[in-house]
Amino acid sequence: DNLRLEQELRTAIGEEQFVFLFQPQISCGTGNPVAAEALLRWRHPSLGLLRPDAFIGQAEETGLIHELGYWAVE
């Protein structure tokens, strides 16, 4: 199962299946937006939108976290 996830992660990075969702941070005092948090998600072709807890651990274990990081910066 880990091998399959690793292969799917490699494909996902190559096919840019990852997206950022931006969540505003609002000031309690003014109600105005003061920042935005970037939330990484994987648009998995068969499992749908996956949160990082579903894939980051495997990405770290296999070293794919570096390729994912490069993608994120680009």
Can you describe this structure in just a few lines?
The protein is elongated and about 50 Å long.
Report what the structure shows.
By secondary structure, the protein is α+β, with helices and mostly antiparallel strands. Helix content is 41%, strand content 32%. The protein has a three-stranded antiparallel sheet, with no helix packed on it. A hairpin with a 6-residue loop joins strand 1 and strand 2. Helix 2 crosses helix 3.
Q: Note the beta-strand portion.
A: 25-35%
Average predicted local confidence, pLDDT:
95
Please write the string of helix (H) and strand (E) elements: HEEEHH
Class from helix and strand fractions: alpha+beta
Trace the largest sheet across and list its strands: 1-2-3
Low-confidence stretches are none
What's the main sheet like?
Answer: 3 strands, antiparallel
Helix content: 40-55%
Number of strands: 3
N-to-C span = 30 Å
Number of helical segments?
3
Rg over CA atoms:
15 Å
- Molecular shape: elongated
